[in-house]
From TrEMBL:
It comes from the Bacteria. This is Aldo/keto reductase. InterPro entries: AKR (IPR020471), AKR_Detox_Biosynth (IPR050523), NAD(P)_OxRdtase_dom_sf (IPR036812), NADP_OxRdtase_dom (IPR023210). Residues 15-308 form the NADP-dependent oxidoreductase domain. Gene3D superfamilies: NADP-dependent oxidoreductase domain. CDD domains: AKR_AKR11B3. Keywords: Oxidoreductase.
Length: 330
């Protein structure tokens, strides 16, 4: 699998990263069998995916734990990207959070340690300084951020403690970062790692209308605020979302490329994108998704996907927070 060298680090990440959130089940995902989760992680490794994204927030450490259980003996061959939550950004707290992560992961270093969401209450420069200290101590090899918008990125740019990546929601049905965040990342030399790259399954074509989407996955701003778990105040754009999905599906049939693979490959063709972090609940899904890394799309196909998804991009606008109207991406 093709690799991408992250700046300000010695890390070479695989362009497809396995996302270890859904494999803990529970919030957002529902029941999950641990045997499927372990098989999914092992399949990712067997398919050449060497980078694994997790976070303490995923099952309160359960995701980090599963990753260690599945790939502990492969530690030297893999890159672990984990995250600290915003409540832990005070320097003394992030050091404790890192220790918890190391314990869950049963390792003595985390390759890429990321700030999960911005926390405007805590001076970012102090958090970045603490990350640099963790790096100097060998507990992390590099650090990055996630859900960082233009203002936070500006602070990162001015800091002498250099980040290696910004992890953002980005997919054919959610192109908000294209307005101003992706251009800033490109000009600052901060590669983007895309999360929810198949829009939590919607871009595989498995749901044909909004009523089929489970409530916890219908929390995003695509769906009406009337959905029980919604945390935004918007009417959503369900009709346009499913019209767009249907047009992508037609194009994928024409191109003879499964829709999820086409969606992942589209991301990997965008400027500034280092990798797509894709989840999978079982080995079969992971095997299927892994084939996307080898796909070369014609410029005409990329342009057609851009055109089809532009009305939805415009309807959802530049707010890069998938779930909330008052954007936490600052
Ligand atoms: N930094 C952040 O704030 C943040 C936020 C969200 C996610 N993330 C990271 O990004 C990773 C990926 O994002 P995500 O899990 O939200 O969404 P995703 O990767 O877009 O979607 C993953 C889900 O789609 C379904 N799926 C996957 N492959 C499939 C296939 N071939 N056919 C049919 N269905 C398939 C599975 O769920 P079902 O089988 O249940 O449909 C799977 O759990 C996470 O694991 C996490 O590491 C980070």
């Amino acid at each position: 699998m093709e690799k991408f060298a992250l700046p300000n680090s010695e890390l070479e990440i695989s362009r497809l990263i396995f996302g270890c959130w859904a494999i803990v089940g529970g919030f957002n995902w529902g029941p999950q069998d641990e045997r499927d989760s372990l098989a999914a992680i092992k399949m990712a490794y067997d398919q050449g995916i060497t980078t694994f994204d997790t976070a303490e927030a995923y099952g309160g450490g359960a995701s980090e734990d599963l990753l260690a259980k599945a790939l502990g003996e492969k530690r030297k061959d893999i890159i672990i990207a984990s995250k600290a939550g915003p409540a832990d950004f005070a320097p003394e707290d992030i050091k404790k959070a890192c220790e918890r992560g190391l314990k869950n992961l049963k390792t003595d270093y985390i390759d890429l340690y990321q700030l999960h969401w911005p926390n405007p209450e805590i001076p970012l420069e102090e958090t970045l300084g603490a990350l640099q200290e963790l790096r100097n101590e060998g507990k992390i090899r590099a650090f990055g951020v996630s859900n960082f918008g233009n203002k936070s990125l500006e602070t990162c740019k001015k800091s002498s403690f250099k980040i290696s990546s910004n992890q953002m929601a980005y997919n054919l049905l959610f192109r908000a970062i294209e307005y101003s965040i992706l251009p800033q990342c490109i000009s600052d030399g901060v590669p983007v790692l895309c999360y929810s790259p198949i829009m939590q399954g919607l871009l595989t074509g498995k749901f044909s209308s909004e009523t089929e989407v489970p409530d916890d996955r219908a929390r995003t701003r695509h769906f009406t605020k009337e959905r029980p778990q919604s945390r935004h105040q918007e009417d959503g754009c369900e009709e346009l979302t499913f019209q767009t999905i249907s047009q992508i599906k037609d194009l994928s049939k024409e191109a003879n490329i499964p829709m999820g693979n086409l969606s992942l490959a589209w991301l990997l063709h965008q400027e500034g994108i280092a990798a797509a972090i894709v989840g999978g609940r079982n080995a079969a899904q992971v095997r299927k998704n892994a084939a996307s890394a080898q796909l070369a799309l014609t410029p005409a196909l990329v342009a057609a996907l851009n055109d089809i998804t532009r009305p939805l991009k415009e309807a959802l606008g530049p707010n890069a927070d998938l779930w909330q109207s008052e954007s936490r991406v600052v």
